[in-house]
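Q: Can I borrow your eye for a moment on a structure tokenisation matter? Would you mind producing a protein record, from residues through to fold? Write it directly below this note and I will take it from there.
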Amino acid sequence: MTEDQGDQAKLNADPSLLDLGIKQRLAVLASLGILDAPLERNFQVLVDAARELIAIPGAIIYLVTEEHQCFVSFSGIPDSIASKRKIPFAHSLCKHVVSQKAPLVVADASNALLLRDNPAIKEQGVGAYLGVPLEHNGIAVGAFCVIDSQVREWTDTEFTILEKLAGLTARELTIRDEFRRQKSHLESRLQHAQKMESIGQFTSGVVHDFNNVLATIQIYAELLESRLANQPDDVALVKNIDEALNSAKETVQQLLDWSRPDHGNKSNVKLSKIVEDMLPLLCVALSKRIEVSFESRTDNGLIFGNVNSLRQVLLNLCLNAEHAMVKRGGEVAISLHDYSVEEGAQQPGDLPPGAYVNLRVADNGHGIPADLLDRLYEPYFTTKPVEEGTGLGLWTVAGIVEGHGATIQVESELDVGTTFNIYFPRVKIDSAAAASKRILVVDDDPVVANSIGSLLEAGGYKTDVFTDSTEALDALCNNPDSYRLVIADYGMPGLNGAQLLDECRRIAPLKPFVLCSGQLSHESMAAAKADACCAKPFDLKTLTETIESLLHV
């Protein structure tokens, strides 16, 4: 016998099951995971409340399967029945409530057409019955009922009380379902995180050494290019080296970004550079029917933020825009603007007075209904099909935005499009030239240390280079005011970069400190509390931008 034939046989045996929707109901019950679970306190409170408020001998919360009526919670029923926790379908009273998806009010059970032939009437001593359906996701899965051994007329107040208690029970089922979904999602995230951590541990040692080699080649290639400025043929050869290095750097950095993400470290970063670096990825990640444009109207766009987190914000917003345009195609317009709020001015979102960098992501998709705008940042809220979205994209964006002290606003019009505006507090910088005081450079690898020193001096800075962190600390202790900034490798023998930072904070608490490493993890940076981090290998532009952002704040 096939499954469909089995269902039909059950329907023929009991016509009242015709509207039960067996398959759908069983799927919902399976998602709740409650049929074989122990009796729960929350449900017991509700049945006890029903007995007390309605002054009734028995109250039961039932779930209805294809063959049984199963107790979720009960109060005031015979032990012979309660010990089984389920009764055969032939004895079920609540199946009619589920079948019709409507309340059942019976004043005299012995004379009720639906109940008078039911064996449970005599076995359980049922005189009167009142039941209200329990629904979850639009499917009737059970009933909340009260039973009296005597014949009685049910009042409107009693019916209202039971209806409200049934509503609370349905809400409890919904909470349970949401909890199970979140638990499953978090378990999946944990497994993924453990996998990524294993990858990070496996690659960290290799990446550290490899990045040191790349850093040295990168620096000397730049120095060589500057010396061969008048020999174009030779410069072309050096540029080929640069291109190969950049490709290697991107490959290593992508592995580090995804296997060991660092969401906690912030430094002064140019938002325009982050967007520009993300454009190639966006063009690959989004549908070919979606065009991506970018326009920057900022003078510097410098904000205090975490690069990886900001990349995630941009990616999530663009993926959200893609969903709104996937059927007919369209354009994602990304732009940056300077924005300022004067003292006393009224601004949307209650932006405090100050200078901001406005990141705007706009699409010309189907738009968002006005009644859903307030729910966009709720976790697990999504308008996408289950298989297409988790409802965590905009929730993640909102969390990152809040963590950056920024504000997010959304405007949308149906069939016109949606625009997200994020206002990041802009870092105030002094436009004066780089400070004339020296920079202290510390790296246990002599080649790397000297190449960093050469790179900085080529950029107009004066440096003192050390390969021994203890000697560097002595120099700092002897004359802390002679150094404007410290750049140190993280993984050094003896006094490592984090320990050197601690000593620097003790000697000169306000002195900017930059950590450099090819394998710097979130935990180590959080412990070190450096002002900025430069991932090896880096070029002159990256290093000088980092230094200037710290020296000119």
